[in-house]
Amino acid sequence: MTKLKQILAIGTLVAFSQLSTAETRLPTAAVFDLGSLDTMAELGLESQVTGVPQQMIPEYLQQFNSASYSDIGGLKSPDLTALSTLNPDLIIITGRQAGKKDELIKISAVKQVNMSGDNYWHALSDNVNSIATLFHVQDRADKALTDLKGYIESTKKPLNKDATVLVVTHNSGSLGLREDVISSQLLGLKAASIPSHVKSHKRGTRTFTPLTISDIAETNPTVLFVVDRSMAIGNTDEALDVNTLKADLAEQGAGSIKVTYLSPKLWYLSGNGLQSVRMQIKEIAEGL
Are 72 and 32 in contact (CB under 8 A)? Predict the structure, then answer.
């Protein structure tokens, strides 16, 4: 285990992969990143997963919500005791767990998923390939990425190229602009232009762009896609009432805007995986 930590500490995933070969076994993983989890499932690596954040597992990953997998805490509150007991070879995290990274590194090697960069497909492919390298399933990853690329291209062809889309996040009654790479980069859909009077605000390293119903009506997209954070994290009392949203838009003279409510956990908690991206592509295409 100590050697595994040292290898990942210097960022050498290939060396980690070679070490697992030398030990004649594949590494075990506690996985907080749900996109990486669905990638591992797609690549047939469920048996290498030993722990997941069971409180927040989306419907499409319910096979991991069982006694076969240890509960390792919440997405923002890793259970350090459970992880220490589990003692996995690897902990896969995202920015949500970054604040606990120093503590997690004391337990096991840590791989933090980073989807930064201007080319989403390249970032997605890099993450899938890094997982495939760790677990010696590159041939499966190559096929899965080729199949996903083909699915994207075949889905993209018949879409209405004149449609404009606006993707927003709903949180406890407030709406905010969501920069969505699935609709823009992968499907090539045109983002509706936000009115110039709408301003963005910085909170730490993050940028927020609040939108009112009036702003959305003025933007007048063909389709308004909504990601409901409140529902995703279990605040059902504060979840979006879609009928009320439609009525409010109609009052502003924007009743022609089609409102599509996306699967909350898929879009807010997951994504960036082989299975989740395919599902997101399908939801956007069907929601146009």
Answer: yes
